[in-house]
Design a protein that fits this description.
Distance between the termini: 75 Å
Strand content: under 5%
Oligomer: single chain
Number of helices: 5
Length: about 170
């Protein structure tokens, strides 16, 4: 009789937990590494505890589940910390590359403005190529520089809200 009552109560508890979690969830997200580790560790610990404790398998399973869940949570936390550290390093590298790209664009813009100010200071009879060079300036970067290097720098590198945020160079859309 005791067995039937405990089995019925555990079945009711499992069903209640399963349905209450799905009713409250609005958006389905993946399990955290801590939760995965706790579940795997708890299941493994319960099985090992029931096998090891021959006299009272329920107690052995409960103790094994508790110890296994704790150990699994710890392992999951270590994995989560490693993932967070790797993501932070990736973001820092993207920010460094974006800063270097902005600095290169600023250098190119300053050399372009120096050329244009020296061309303005030159007499009106100066070479027609200087006027042509000023007319061909594109977004603070000279066309000669772009033609020489055959790429367009991407000023939005590292900004996840912009398209092609993972590429240092703009991609052709055709």
């Amino acid at each position: 009789m005791k067995k039937v009552i405990s089995l019925a109560l555990s079945l009711v508890l499992i069903v209640a937990v399963a349905f209450s979690a799905s009713a409250q969830t609005k958006e389905r997200t993946g399990w955290s590494p801590q939760a995965k580790g706790a579940v795997i560790g708890g299941a493994t610990g319960a099985a090992a505890g029931a096998i090891i404790h021959k006299r009272n398998r329920v107690v052995g399973g409960a103790v094994g589940a508790a110890v296994g869940a704790g150990a699994g949570y710890g392992v999951g936390k270590i994995i989560d910390n490693k993932q967070k550290k790797k993501e932070a390093e990736r973001i820092a590298a993207a920010n460094r590359a974006a800063a270097a790209n902005r600095a290169a664009n600023a250098r190119m813009a300053s050399t372009s403005t120096r050329r244009s100010t020296s061309a303005k200071a030159a007499p009106a009879t100066s070479n027609a190529l200087v006027a042509n060079e000023n007319a061909m300036a594109y977004n603070g970067t000279s066309m000669a520089y772009l033609a020489e290097n055959m790429f367009l720098p991407n000023p939005d590198f590292g900004d996840r809200d912009k398209p092609y945020h993972t590429s240092e160079y703009r991609r052709k859309s055709w």
